[in-house]
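Example S7 (structure tokens).
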């Protein structure tokens, strides 16, 4: 999260910030709702934003996922990709650390993002 605002500003300045944005935060540590709201507000209401929740065997996992869900509900242009539920019981997708994905996990994750983005685009205004 510490780098997200700078990354958005840099992409905007370069004219490379698209109208569909996928944000995955929380794997490396927690953040607060104020930070996430600020990030979403910086993107503008004309962007469609997918927020990917997390599956990480760390103490902050539940708080991060709860905050993502709550903040996403405040923004009409945002939706949650429920990676936590989609990856439940799929321990074989992760390396021994329980965080990083192996090849089959990466493919599953990418497929989930594509399916969710496609559905999200179909209900775009």
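Recovered sequence:
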């Amino acid at each position: 999260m510490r780098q997200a605002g700078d990354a958005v500003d840099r992409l905007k300045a370069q004219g490379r910030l698209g109208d569909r944005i996928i944000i995955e935060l929380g794997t490396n540590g927690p953040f607060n709702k104020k930070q996430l709201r600020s990030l979403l507000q910086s993107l503008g209401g004309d962007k469609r934003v997918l927020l990917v929740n997390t599956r990480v065997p760390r103490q902050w996992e539940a708080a991060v996922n709860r905050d993502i869900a709550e903040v996403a509900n405040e923004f009409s242009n945002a939706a949650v990709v429920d990676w936590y539920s989609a990856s439940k019981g799929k321990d074989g997708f992760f390396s021994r650390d329980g965080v990083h994905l192996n090849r089959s996990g990466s493919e599953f994750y990418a497929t989930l993002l594509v399916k969710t983005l496609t559905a999200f685009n179909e209900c775009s205004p």
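Notes on this example. The chain is about 45% helix and 10% strand.
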